[in-house]
């Protein structure tokens, strides 16, 4: 058979219909040359997929050579200098504006521990975890890479599995922000399905949708200030403060690689980048006070609260407080240096995992799937079978396409693990 | 809407960047694509991917047109380029071992081939979907991908061969 036939390439890429496929398969069966051709095409296809996937993960690394023009021609064109360049700057600023206003783009999270200001006056040990969001290009590509590997019949390398990115590949229903606030905060607490006595906390942040009006406003703003380096969005800081009367320790899901890379005691921990889009989900596994008399013996350690023990210095007020945690979201408006604050106190009402929302179950399933693929020390008692169950319960109605894809992926991983 | 935004934002950005050669313009194009998407109610479309890439491609080409970067649009020029010279001579590429080298070779291919490769291997679209987006036939998409993969394999093999002397195997294992 002719090995220089686009049909053979289409066959290698699984682009033929049943009849053609059978026909080519029949011909290729007796032609070692054709078989090698198919194999080499598939190898090149896999390399391309990997490199293209890596490009999505590091968008800045896109090969910049324009398809469309010889740049030197344009630079010699006076039009470029008089009009195109200011326009480009305006466009750039518009983009910043849109990103800033809508948290469009993606969000880089940085976790750091806040040092206690003064032990003597506050009496409480520091017990908060700060997640600082910076708006920039960031990937959710880990899920795509994991999927690619599994579809190719291999389990992904552990380091390519980033739980925070996998969780944020999917979207969850969060309420729209109030008219006067750029973000909404949503918190749900229920049982942790892979560790009986632990609690799982899902915190969702949602920015304003990318509405037409926002885009227009952003452009007007940008054109007015063209040429002036103005950051429309100043830092967005998410702080989760745990009540030491309720919480013995906690663990932020994901970020393993980044945490290992740097000193965790350092208070500028780069916990990595998550989620493109305008909503972010983070999960904490929480060990309630008194949940395990001897955690080290039976359950993998979770990050202990920093700076000593919690119990001895706890004030009466905190003892009485039944709040589990407070989520604080600080942001600065473009026009002021003043930091605005959105605050949500959360009481754990003891909800069981079985009664949690579909979104909660699904996010938990994705997190556990990631931990199992990473063989994480935090994976607990979960199995791929359990992940399937939780994801099935959390599949929901509307987002079937992506969530159903996840279920399929877990099944394939199950088959691979069985060998 | 959010699902689609999340799912397609970066792929569309990469796609528009390849066409315009400019990240910032690409961002504008993608923004407008999503605005149109929302306004037209296109999110109810059964094939949002095809819709999004088609509108994004048109938007990117419009940017080129407005900025007199006509070459990409000009079918004749594209054909001429495919037949003859290429945008960047392969010999001038910097050699690089890391992943991403393959994409540098991709950048030497004719524009038409580059875009179908990106739609196929970055976005997992079918020949038929790619044909709709790039306004051609599935057969032609098949020919473009076939030709592109042939060239890539050949150039990749040549490069790999050149690399061998620079990374000699050591005898540590022995």
Describe the structure.
The complex is a heterodimer of chains A (419) and B (174). Chain A is of the alpha+beta class and 419 residues long. In chain A, 41% of the residues lie in helices and 19% in strands. Chain A has helices at 6-12, 18-29, 32-57, 71-76, 78-102, 119-122, 141-151, 163-169, 212-224, 256-261, 295-298, 316-320, 358-374, 384-393, 400-418, and strands at 106-113, 128-136, 183-191, 199-207, 236-242, 247-252, 273-276, 279-288, 323-332, 339-347. In chain A, the strands form 2 sheets. In chain A, strands 7-1-2-5-9-10 form a 6-stranded antiparallel sheet, with helices on one face. Chain A has a 4-stranded antiparallel sheet with strand order 3-4-8-6, with helices on one face. Chain A is elongated and about 80 Å long. Mean pLDDT of chain A is 67; it is low at 60-139, 211-234, 257-277 and 293-314. With 174 residues, chain B is an all-alpha fold. In chain B, 66% of the residues lie in helices and 0% in strands. Chain B is built from 8 helices and no strands. In chain B, helix 1 runs antiparallel to helix 6 (111-122) and helix 3 (48-66) packs parallel to helix 7. The longest helix of chain B is centred in the C-terminal third of the chain and has 26 residues, at 138-163. At the A-B interface, helix 1, helix 3 and helix 5 of A face helix 1, helix 2, helix 5, helix 6 and helix 8 of B.
